[in-house]
Design goal:
The chain has 633 residues and is an alpha/beta fold. It is built from 18 helices and 31 strands. The strands form eight sheets. Strands 12-11-8-6-7-14-15-24 form an eight-stranded mixed sheet, sandwiched between helices. Strands 5-4-17-16-18-19-20 form a seven-stranded mixed sheet, sandwiched between helices. Strands 22-21-23-25-26 form a five-stranded antiparallel sheet. A hairpin with a 2-residue loop joins strand 27 (506-509) and strand 28 (512-515). It is globular. The chain starts with 9 loop residues before the first helix and ends with a helix. The structure holds 5'-O-[(S)-ethoxy(hydroxy)phosphoryl]adenosine.
Length: 633
């Protein structure tokens, strides 16, 4: 390996991969050695996927913020860590150096302490993409509080559910937010949520819009006022490698979203390792990940990975289509972005706006492009390659999950080869396997199967908050001895992986996961609804759209009114991002005699594959299928 620590060639990749399999402990110990530890670990790994229990760097102590900030100060304190690009292109850009970020984090951490937040406490963060979001995340980590960032587009109800589940003691938020042409309140949503959350004792509010917002005396304080009372010295709390660093809620096929828990040590090592190698980040380059910190991508490749690597990165407050659909490209030119990382849905949507929005921009600074969150179709891949990368930038199609903490399967930019729609090769340390439905490992190539991982990597989830059994059942019980991803995948003749999509009842809308059960329960709250069933269907821009079949409570005189009410119910319970794209009213759902909904049939109808519905004779009432087919939207 080169002195930069990056894998620089195909043969280096192969060597690293082989070493990581032959002696995983030596491999990861060497990587972990690159960081600042307060106390060195005494054992590298203990694991048992049956329990499940995974521990990395046992006995080690560290603080991730020391690794994100302090250790860069001596040589690179003046380097810009964050370039904040506001929603309005004319508003002033804010550049924050590592030294300034360190100071802001320490001060914010002291504000947390002043408000009674202690090591191990949970802190919910509900904020738009402003610097205080990253500062707040790191401030929690500084004092050992466990952050739980909730995407700022979720409803008050979703926020409350997550706060209650984690029993958070404090909430960090802003007064309001700017998103494209709209300004929205944030504090109002928090206030509504907090009426259900007695565990929350403090709410710390950042100023963004300057709007007057109600402040509850004794609970709510302004961050800027609090900062006057604290100094810039805040020693980093010593955290055990296995102490939780954060909780991030994500949807599964059943029930309420679960709090995926990540560790302090292993997560740190893998977030930086994957950032450095996948994107091949070089000193002084500018990295731009468009994901919101409310999702895992914003955690690993904005809040943590790039800072651990001492990188300079852009944080963008707004949306890709404001003031026009060339906004990403104007940001790339304005800040001379070298590495650009976004979701296929954004690429497809900008592609649909046409090349007129691309051609005014030079994009000559770009060196590497990346995608994440969902499969990328070949058409979008080629458009990205040709029109954004001008044919010269490698594309990394990065496959991973909230639960994996970092990228597991991806080509390494310009180092290992790429193939459209293939995430390609596992990173060193990652041992993917494809299983048959009955759990047998498929050893050959040119096959398709269920994607599982058979050996732990440092940033694998440790548990689901407050419910370890749910973690076991969801990820480790279907195929004992393996971590089950919930995805199906293909492997080509050369061992590259292509992710096909979820094989469970999870719908991936614009790269965001929703469980069908979660959306159905939101729909069922509408007074118009008796029962519903939701499936995903192919959508040109979003990847998957949400198709809802609804049995109405009463006769529908005006279907539009009923549809609006159902949508309003989903917005209230989950948030606008989970709105169904299509709602079809039906008199019954295809059920087996034991009462189980045959989603396969509903999926085929939504996909307009009416010829391949399969055997419907076992249904309780086969006639509903005809009705559903005729009424298809
Ligand atoms: C899907 C996002 C195809 C997959 C980091 C996975 C992908 C789910 C890709 C996780 C990719 C993510 N190609 N599918 N490159 N990346 N997925 O937890 O179905 O929001 O299981 O994590 O997104 O979504 P999550």
């Amino acid at each position: 390996m080169s002195t930069s620590g990056r894998i620089g060639s195909w043969s280096e990749y192969q060597r690293a991969y082989q070493l990581s399999i032959a002696d995983p402990e030596a491999f990861w110990a060497a990587e972990a050695d690159r960081f600042t530890w307060k106390r060195k670990w005494n054992r590298v790994l203990e694991w048992d996927f049956k329990k499940p229990e995974v521990k990395w760097f046992i006995g080690g102590e560290l603080n991730i913020t020391e690794n994100c900030l302090d250790r860069h100060l001596e040589q690179n304190g003046d380097r810009i860590a964050l370039i904040w690009e506001p929603n309005e292109p004319k508003e002033e850009v804010i550049g924050i150096s590592y030294r300034e970020l360190h100071e802001r984090v320490c001060r914010y951490a002291n504000v947390l302490k002043r408000n009674g937040v202690k090591k191990g406490d949970r802190v919910a963060i509900y904020m738009p993409m402003i610097p205080d979001l990253v500062v707040g995340v790191l401030a929690c980590a500084r004092i050992g509080a466990i952050h739980s960032v909730v995407f700022c587009g979720f409803s008050a109800r979703s926020l409350a559910d997550r706060i209650i589940d984690a029993q958070a003691v404090a909430v960090l938020c802003s007064d309001g937010m700017h998103r494209g042409a709209k300004a929205m309140s944030v504090k109002d949503v928090v206030d509504e949520a907090l009426t259900h959350c007695p565990s929350v004792k403090h709410c710390i509010v950042s100023q963004r819009t300057g709007d007057a917002v109600p402040m509850t005396v004794g609970r709510d304080v302004w961050l800027h006022a609090e900062l006057k009372h604290v100094d810039a010295n805040c020693p980093a709390e010593a955290m055990d490698s296995e102490d939780p660093l954060f909780i991030l809620y994500t949807s599964g096929s059943t029930g309420m979203p679960k709090g995926v828990v990540h560790s302090s040590g292993g997560y740190m090592v893998f977030a930086e390792y994957s950032f450095r190698n996948v994107f091949q980040y070089k000193k002084d380059e500018v990295f731009f990940c468009t994901a919101d910190v409310g999702w895992i991508t914003g955690h690993s490749y904005m809040a943590y990975g790039p800072l651990l690597a001492g990188a300079t990165q852009v944080m963008f407050e707004g949306v890709p289509t404001y003031p026009d659909a060339g906004r990403f490209w104007s940001i790339v030119d304005k800040h001379k972005v070298n590495i650009f990382y976004t979701a296929p849905t954004a690429i497809r949507s900008l592609m649909a706006h046409g090349l007129d929005h691309v051609s005014p921009h030079s994009l000559s600074s770009l060196r590497v492009l990346g995608t994440v969150g969902e499969p990328i179709n070949e058409e979008a891949w080629h458009w990205y390659k040709q029109h954004i990368g001008k044919g010269k930038c490698p594309i990394v199609d990065t496959w991973w999950q909230t639960e994996t903490g970092g990228i597991l399967i991806s080509s390494l930019a310009g180092v290992t080869d790429e193939k459209p729609s293939y995430a390609a090769y596992p990173l060193p340390g990652i041992q993917p396997v494809l299983l048959t439905a009955d759990g047998k490992e498929i050893l050959e190539n040119e096959v398709e199967g269920l994607l599982c991982i058979k050996f732990p990597w440092p940033s694998i989830l440790r548990t689901t908050w407050g419910d370890h059994e749910r973690c076991r059942q969801t990820y480790f019980s279907s195929y004992p001895g393996y971590y089950f991803t919930g995805d199906g995948a293909k492997r080509d003749a050369d061992g590259r992986y292509r992710i096909i999509g979820r094989v469970d009842d999870v719908i991936n809308v614009s790269g965001h996961r929703f469980g069908t059960a979660e959306i159905e329960s939101a729909i069922n709250e509408s007074e118009w609804v008796v029962e519903s069933a939701v499936v995903g269907y192919p959508h040109n821009i979003k990847g998957q759209g949400i198709y809802a079949y609804v049995i109405a409570e009463k006769e529908i005189t005006d279907a539009e009114i009923a549809r609006k009410d159902i949508i309003a119910s989903v917005v209230k319970v989950i948030g606008p991002i989970a709105k169904p794209d299509k709602i079809q009213f039906v008199s019954g759902l295809p059920k087996t005699r034991s009462g189980k909904i045959m989603r396969r049939i509903l999926r085929k109808v939504a996909e307009n594959e009416l010829g391949s519905l399969g055997d419907t004779s076992t249904l309780l009432d086969p006639a509903v299928v005809e009705e559903i087919k005729t009424g298809r939207l």
